[in-house]
Each structure stands twice: as structure tokens, then as C-alpha cells.
Amino acid sequence: MSAVLGALVPVFLVIALGAALKRGLLPEASHWIALERLTYFVLFPALLIVSISRAELGEVAVVEVSATLLGSVAIVGALLTLARRPICRALGLPGPSYTSLFQGALRWNTYIALAVSGALSGQRGLAVAAVGLAVMIPVLNALSVVVLARHGENGGASNRLMLLQLLRNPFIWSCAIGAAINVADVPIPPVVLTFGDILGRASLALGLLVVGAGLRLGDLRRPRAATWFASALKLALLPALASGLGHALGLREVDLLIVAVAASVPSAPNGYVLARQMGGDAPLLAEILTVQTLLAAVTMPVVIALVAHL
């Protein structure tokens, strides 16, 4: 447990620093919007390309890791899709709020996942995480766009908006570029790799700071039922499904551990940007992100410790 906490505590300290900076040194929203855009369009795509292109996949159970992550997301996604009407009735959710519940229950915070994976298992952990990035980021972004196009406030322009969002999404094309470079074994000049690596390292720190700055602690006074439901799905059900499915598919040690990390992190802050752009319930998603990020400080060590004993 001490090793788990040693990997997690620095990550959450950086998030806490972001929250403190937002309330002290950098109170202007424009500062954080600029950092968010820089991270979203430049720094994090660089991290994805470098991480995926350089991942040593020879020791990673690529098929099993991919099947585990896709399978667990498919189960929860199918549950939310098939039971959408009764869930919305029970929680009193209109369409835009349902899209935030969907994103909050399925998306994963890759900043936290990469930081914890590297701290726990070094380069081997990052290689497994890179498989998760390449597989899950395009799928989850596409699913989120489809759900927002169908049930968001801007659903009338669904087909055009859906296509535009998919084409403009920097995470999707950066994953595709990184995977193509890795599979084709394209030689990259060391200076280019170093350049991308510097940008990628900056993205982790800035990304975690932006997560902290986005926390809305006032929402903790009375979180909505949808927030608790999304948090239960994301922080409890999804990690349990991923860990159980991964174990059944033969994943062990680092592969299984990093799968559990990827499944147990809170939802992604860039989902909030997407919700604002496509007519989702952005305030509800901000509340979900805040509650999940704080709860994950407790739930992630538990999940990781349980999986480590499997």
C-alpha cells in the first residue's frame, strides 16, 4: 500500500496545487482557458504521439489489454444506452444531462492514468498505458460525440456536428499517428523525439494543474443523484469489470495492474470542453469531475491494492 500511495499522492498534490493556484496566484479564468487550449491542442497530442510511437509492445499482452478495456467500457456503455429512459426518469435527467452522465461514467483521465502508471511500473507500465491510449481514446471520444449529437441541445445538426467534432479531435488523430509510427517502425530523428518528449512531459504537469483548477468545490455541498450514480459506475463498477475481465483473459502483474489503473481513474476534464461545444450539461459534468477526482484519492488505492493481490 505504501508504494501505491507513493505513486498517487504526488499526482493528487499537483491537482491540489492547481486548485490553490486558481484561488490565489492565477484567479482569472482566461489564464486557465489558455492553458487548457495549449494542453488540448498541442502538449497532450505530442504526449500521445511520443508515448504510443515509442511504446515497447513486445512484452505487453496487446490483444488482451485491448479486449479488457474495450469490453468493460462496452458493458457499461450498453447498460447506459439500453436503460437510458428508466435512468433518466429515476434521476430526473433531460437529454443534455444524460450526455454528462454518460461521459462521466465512461471517459478516463489520461493525465492521472499516465502519471500513476509511470510511477508504479516505470517504462513497462507506460507501455501498457500506451496501448490503452491508442485503443480507448478514439473509441471514447467517438462515443461521446455520438451521444452528444443525439441527446445534446444541438442535436438538430447531429450528423454534420458529429463529423466535424471527430475530424477536429486532436486526440484521435494523434493516437492514429502514434500507432502508425509504431506499427510501421518509422525511424524518427532523435531531435524530434526529444522535442516531442519535452512537450509531453509538460502536458502531464499542466494537465493535472488544469484538472485542479477546474474543481468546483462549491458543488460538494449537495451533489446531485446523477453525480453519485456516475461516480459509482466509474470508480467502482468499471474497475471491477476491467479487473475481473482482465484476470479471466489471463492478464497478470503489470498488465493487469495498469488496466486497473486506467479503469479506476476519474473521468476526463476534456469532456467538459466537449459538453460546452456540443450542448451537453457542462455544470453537471463539472460537478461529476469534482466529486470523482476527490473520491478517486480514496478509491484508486483500494482498487490497485486489491488487484495487486490477485
The CATH class designation is Mainly Alpha
How far apart are the termini?
14 Å
Quaternary organisation: single chain
* Structural class label: mainly alpha
From the spread of the alpha carbons, the general shape counts as globular
Return the average pLDDT rounded to an integer. Answer: 87
- How many individual helices? 13
**How many whole angstroms does the radius of gyration measure?**
18 Å
Q: Approximately what portion of the residues adopt beta-strand conformation?
A: under 5%
Number of domains: 1
Order of helices and strands: HHHHHHHHHHHHH
**What would the CATH topology be?**
Na+/H+ antiporter like fold
Counted beta strands: 0
Do you know the CATH architecture? Up-down Bundle
Largest sheet: none
Helix content: over 70%
The low-confidence runs, each spanning 5 or more residues with pLDDT under 50, are none
Write a structural description.
The chain is mainly alpha-helical. The chain has a single domain (2-308), classed as Up-down Bundle (Na+/H+ antiporter like fold), CATH 1.20.1530.20. Helix content is 82%, strand content 0%. It has 13 helices and no strands. Helix 1 runs antiparallel to helix 13 (282-308), helix 2 crosses helix 6 (110-151) and helix 3 (62-82) packs antiparallel against helix 10 (225-248). The radius of gyration is 18 Å and the shape is globular. It starts with a helix and ends with a helix. The mean pLDDT is 87.
